[in-house]
Design goal:
The protein is built from nine helices and ten strands. By secondary structure, the protein is of the alpha+beta class. It has a seven-stranded antiparallel beta sheet with strand order 4-5-6-10-9-8-7, with helices on both faces. A three-stranded antiparallel beta sheet has the order 1-2-3.
């Protein structure tokens, strides 16, 4: 038996012309009658949904799985019309849009001579396309996808879309024609891409968990946005009443923003790590905070010997009520399965919601608090 060619040679021969998809003994196709979609289960367990009027042909090249998708019949509205035969050699870049083709390649990371990382592959792909002279765009897309996921869109001389992503053990390369006016082709691309993203959710958690806090600089910019003005107010000198109010507002904002940010971080971390996002998410963290803050502010006013703690309660209840309504909408989306935690993007969003509520309540506490007047000496 001939030895398996190095992956680099294989990619040059089979991958540069858009990738193909093949069927192994363990692969299978079933019909989802409720949504009128086919479901493909690959050799490595990957699951892809695709158009009902398409078929999948999969095979293994050594350890590399290649799956090809094409329309089943000449007339997609008539399943009795003649079958379409698409040869593997026809899966070349210029045919994907014209023939409405799609391909998936699954490459184990431990294959000798395999791909080192998606980041390295992105640089190599960018250089290759720049040399080829085609019109293209390369963009990182790892907000809801696993880290370092990116896509390539080629506009000239042919139209082609490729997505490069990963699990803990495999690299996935999805290639499909691109034409926004072609509804069946667009539906094929969206359905397959969404189902692959859903399949990789568990691996996204594993790969992205270590970056949950530190990866997005937006989080740190957001904290500075709240902390810098609050810190300036907290350090204002003077004994005039309006300066005292601003000083209290600054200190309250620092305290409440930090406290609510911590609550949001705990909810997102536990919900993400243990797949409890239907119950522990940015919406439920916001809801808990909105219920607590009016009472916390009232207690703070009493502790500071305020004369009108219920006035503080009323004013801080207004932003809390607004936050509670938004939190309820988010919680319903999570509970219904319409939303899922996707990593650091939820962390940043939770920080924004929590710190905004903390800042609003801190500011209103400072302005609404009416301390007891000192007795004249």
């Amino acid at each position: 038996m001939k030895k398996l060619l190095p992956v680099s040679v294989f990619i040059f021969l089979f991958l540069t012309p858009p990738f193909s998809f093949s069927e192994s003994v363990k692969s299978g196709i079933s019909l989802d009658k409720k949504k009128w979609e086919n479901v493909f289960v690959g050799h490595y367990g990957e699951t892809l949904r695709f158009n009902f009027d398409y078929t999948a042909e999969a095979e293994l090249h050594g350890e590399i799985e290649v799956v090809r998708f094409h329309q089943r019949n000449v007339d997609s509205e008539n399943l009795l019309s003649p079958l379409i035969r698409v040869r593997p050699e026809e899966y070349v870049p210029e045919n994907f849009t014209r023939m409405r083709l799609m391909q998936l390649m699954v490459i184990p990371k431990n294959v000798p001579g395999g791909i080192g990382s998606l980041a390295e592959l992105k640089l190599a792909k960018d250089k290759e396309l720049a040399r080829s002279g085609v019109g293209y765009e390369v963009m990182t897309d790892d907000v809801i996808w696993p880290p370092d996921t990116f896509w390539v869109s080629i506009s000239t001389p042919y139209q082609l879309f490729q997505r490069y992503t990963q699990s803990d053990r495999h690299i996935f390369i999805l290639t499909v024609g691109e034409n926004k006016q072609d509804i069946p082709l667009t539906r094929l691309a969206e359905t397959a891409s969404n189902s692959l993203c859903l399949y990789l959710r568990g691996f996204n958690r594993q790969l992205g968990d270590s970056h949950l806090v530190y990866r997005d600089p937006f989080v740190w910019m957001l904290m500075l946005l709240f902390y810098v003005p609050a810190g300036i107010f907290a350090l204002l000198p003077g004994r005039r009443r309006w300066l005292q109010r601003l000083r209290l507002a600054g200190r309250s904002t620092l305290l409440f923003s930090s406290m609510l940010a911590f609550i949001g971080w705990v909810f997102i971390l536990i919900g993400w790590r243990y797949k409890l996002d239907r119950w522990l998410n940015d919406g439920s963290a916001w809801m808990l905070s909105s219920l607590l803050m009016p009472w916390v502010c009232r207690a703070a006013s009493i502790h500071l010997k305020g004369r009108r703690p219920w006035r503080v309660f009323f004013w801080t209840a207004l932003p809390s009520l607004f936050a509670g309504v938004g939190a309820l909408a988010l919680m319903l989306d999570y509970a219904g399965g319409d939303m899922h935690l996707s990593g650091d993007v939820n962390f940043g969003f939770a920080m924004l919601l929590q710190m905004a509520l903390g800042a609003a309540c801190g500011l209103l506490l400072g302005l609404a608090h009416d301390p007891e007047r000192e007795a004249p000496r």
